[in-house]
Request: fold
Amino acid sequence: MSDRKRVFSGIQPTGNTHLGNYLGAVRNWAARQAEKINTFCVVDLHSLTVPQDPEQLRHETRSMAALLLACGIDPAQSTLFIQSHVTAHAEGCWLLNCVTPLGWLQRMTQFKDKSARQESVLTGLLDYPVLMAGDILFYDADEVPVGEDQKQHVELTRDIAQRFNALYEQEFFVIPQPIIPEVGARVMGLDDPTVKMSKSLADKRGHAVRMLDTPDEILYSFKRAVTDSGREIAFSNDPDKAGVNNLLGIYRAITGQSNAEVEADFANARGYGDLKVRVAEVVIETLRPIQARHRELMDDPAELDRILAHGAAQARAVAQPKVDEMKRIMGLVLPGAADGR
Ligand code: TYM
Reply:
């Protein structure tokens, strides 16, 4: 048996993938592929928890898969697939629903936030973390690399796994760990550094840097970034300095420098205007090759389909036996099993 850790993570395909998704999650998935056994998933079923335009969802699901490849996810080292291609996810979610107390879901912060913003809340939105728990548990994942905002969902996954193991008196599910990066775990909005950069706000000009934005759009967003009336370019916990802190944090995450090195880089900067343009430049240069590769992949649909079909077959081979075993443990009759077991 390999002692390499198993890693699972996912991302929703719905539009507006932004720098927070990249720095908080995707970049870290790509960086550690060689050390781990990796499974990465475009979670299209999760996107259905809020209303979607069908054609757009289809396009964005493919585009997200292409973007992950463009960001360096290597199908030779990692399984990459679309969630709905592996039916074990929806099937196993039902089984997990039947061991998850309703109260656990009602207290999820993200559910409370998202449901407060909508007039009609779909059942799927409440059930979202159970679907996510299945994603992780059906692959025996030890590690789940995510941004700060998904930590509570991974903790719920641990609770569900422990409850299943206790109810059925066996160590069936691996108890996963959230892996939150030290840098980039919570990129804030450029227009308001007190809220996290988010897909749902990314249609608003100047809020986010979207992964497929043009250099002009990126420069525009950074130039308009909210800062303060001071001049000092340094990391700080002062809430008034949240804007400058966010810009420096993005620069640090992209360049891989320490706080002191970042501050030294800006020692001779001429005010915040200079800071904004220089952060924009490193972001534009980081995204340029990713965007070019994304275009190439989108222009070759057959190749993308081939990669995704291969990934789905690999994922199915892991998840379906796990869900079948869960069914047996829970007392369901497996088809063709003469003794009902
Ligand atoms: P999603 O699609 O909202 O986000 C994908 C990843 O990006 C991270 N992220 C951020 N990181 C830093 N700063 C930000 N402003 C920021 N915004 C988002 C998220 O933490 C996430 O890691 N429920 C998940 C998808 C999912 C999943 C899973 C993740 C489904 N099944 C299983 C892990 C394991 C979600 O909606 O992520």
